[in-house]
């Protein structure tokens, strides 16, 4: 049988018996007397179910003999197409890959119908033994539960199998041996300022823009002039794609006067090109190096770039590259500092925490929620660290 996703199995005649037949998922299914309305009706129903099941599970065995490894392979094909945004895989897809890999390693040859809460608890235990954090363990176990839930929707796994897995709760804080992940807090402004001299000028402006607006690292990386509404005193930046776009929510990053001043030099370009460009940053770096040169430039050294490099600077920064650059800048800054005065390692996501904390301190929690674009105050509280100074002042007077 063809493995093409658009292939429709044919309605065929079984000559020895005179019956109609169709081959689905490697199985020959008889439909009744060839040419009869009943056989045509059954053929249409089977083809519709085959199409609904999709190419991802078209070659999967029936649920009676389905193994965990086969269910994991079928779900992975589905997840590869589902967990995508703007044509690129989302970060969650990497969690799916890790969870399915663990599932295959430990229980690959187990029948899917026999995989129950005790097996899932054993996976929890193996992750605890390897030192994984509680939140990460819950994420991977959640992926495994969704794998079996998807299997139920495809009629590959009985519903009772998923219902049994759903009874196993996630690990609770303080009630498990799994370690707690370190809390992500805001990065102090003095640490930011000490890091900036070791970043390229373009990335320095990215950090300043993100600190002033509280936008996400990915949002500053894909900023374009055409995404900005500059008609008002405060500009409105609407990212082309954002974290909650699949939920139908609008996302607006408000750009005030200070952030506008940072951004202005990057707006003189094509409206659909990215403001912060690695190629442009590389050109500035080369120009700066030429300006600092004290010896004459030899003719052979005027332009030493390769004619056909294997890798060219991208048209925009990836958020992971942005994070790595900040980490390198912190390491460079620490080379000139005393061992007891080293800068803590920080990431661009902490700039969002820092902006949230500043807004909450001056204007309250609701203002921080609106500016950061959170759906709930609870989410904002994770980002906006409580200001201890206010509590100290209050207790100084009344305590």
| Shape category | elongated
What percent of residues are in strands? 5-15%
H/E element order? EEEHHEEHHHHHHHEEEHHHHHHH
CATH topology of the largest domain: hpI Integrase, Chain A
The CATH class of the largest domain is Mainly Alpha
Q: What is the subunit organization of this protein?
A: single chain
Please, what is the average pLDDT?
Answer: 83
Strand line-up in the sheet with most strands: 1-2-3
Count of distinct strands: 8
CATH architecture call of the largest domain: Orthogonal Bundle
Low-confidence stretches: 1-5, 55-61
Tell me the radius of gyration: 29 Å
Helical proportion?
Answer: 40-55%
| Largest pleated sheet | 3 strands, antiparallel
Separation, N- and C-terminal Cα atoms: 80 Å
Please name the fourth-level CATH homologous superfamily of the largest domain: Intergrase catalytic core
> How many structural units, i.e. domains?
3
Give descriptors for this structure.
disordered N terminus; 8 strands; DNA polymerase, domain 1; 16 helices; 399 residues; three-stranded antiparallel beta sheet
Would you write up a description of this structure?
With 399 residues, the protein is mainly alpha-helical. It has three domains: 12-53, no CATH class; 68-166, DNA polymerase, domain 1 (Orthogonal Bundle); 189-294 and 314-383, Orthogonal Bundle (hpI Integrase, Chain A). The protein has 16 helices and eight strands. It has helices spanning 37-53, 68-82, 91-107, 117-129, 134-153, 159-166, 189-195, 201-213, 217-221, 257-263, 278-292, 319-335, 349-363, 365-372, 377-383, 388-398, and strands at residues 12-14, 19-24, 27-33, 84-85, 88-89, 228-229, 235-237, 253-255. Strands 1-2-3 form a three-stranded antiparallel beta sheet, covered by helices on one side. Strand 4 (84-85) and strand 5 form a beta hairpin. Helix 8 runs parallel beside helix 13 (349-363). The longest helix is centred in the middle third of the chain and has 20 residues, at 134-153. The model is unreliable at 1-5 and 55-61 (pLDDT under 50).
């Amino acid at each position: 049988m063809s493995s093409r996703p658009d292939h429709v199995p044919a309605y065929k005649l079984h000559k020895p018996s005179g019956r109609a037949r169709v081959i689905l998922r490697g199985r020959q299914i008889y439909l009744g007397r060839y040419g009869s309305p009943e056989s045509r009706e059954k053929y249409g129903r089977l083809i519709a179910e085959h199409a609904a099941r999709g190419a991802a599970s078209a070659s999967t065995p029936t649920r009676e003999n389905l193994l965990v490894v086969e269910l994991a392979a079928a779900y992975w094909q589905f997840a590869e197409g589902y967990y995508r945004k703007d044509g690129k895989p989302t970060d969650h897809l990497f969690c799916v890959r890790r969870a399915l890999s663990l599932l295959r390693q430990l229980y690959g040859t187990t029948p899917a119908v026999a995989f129950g809460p005790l097996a899932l608890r054993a996976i929890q235990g193996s992750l605890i033994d390897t030192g994984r954090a509680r939140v990460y363990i819950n994420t991977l176990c959640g992926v495994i539960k969704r794998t079996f839930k998807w299997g139920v929707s495809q009629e590959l796994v009985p519903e009772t199998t998923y219902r049994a897995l759903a009874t196993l709760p996630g690990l609770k804080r303080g009630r498990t041996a799994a370690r707690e992940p370190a809390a992500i807090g805001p990065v102090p402004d003095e640490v930011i300022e000490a890091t900036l001299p070791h970043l390229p000028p373009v990335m320095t402006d990215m950090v300043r823009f993100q600190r002033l607006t509280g936008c996400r690292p990915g949002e500053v990386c894909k900023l374009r002039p055409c995404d900005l509404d500059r008609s008002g005193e405060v500009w409105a930046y609407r990212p082309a794609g954002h974290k909650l776009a699949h939920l139908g929510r609008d996302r607006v990053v408000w750009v005030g006067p200070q952030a506008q001043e940072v951004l202005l030099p990057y707006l003189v370009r094509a409206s659909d090109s990215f403001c912060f460009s690695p190629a442009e940053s590389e050109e500035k770096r080369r120009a700066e190096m030429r300006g600092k040169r004290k010896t004459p430039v030899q003719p052979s050294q005027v332009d030493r770039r390769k004619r056909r490099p294997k890798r060219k600077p991208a048209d925009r920064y990836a958020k992971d590259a942005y994070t790595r650059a900040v980490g390198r800048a912190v390491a460079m800054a620490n080379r000139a500092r005393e061992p007891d005065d080293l800068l803590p390692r920080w990431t661009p996501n902490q700039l969002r925490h820092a902006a949230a904390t500043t807004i909450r301190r001056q204007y309250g929690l609701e203002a921080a929620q609106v500016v950061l674009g959170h759906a709930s105050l609870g989410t904002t509280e994770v980002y906006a660290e409580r200001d201890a100074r206010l509590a100290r002042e209050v207790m100084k007077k009344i305590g």
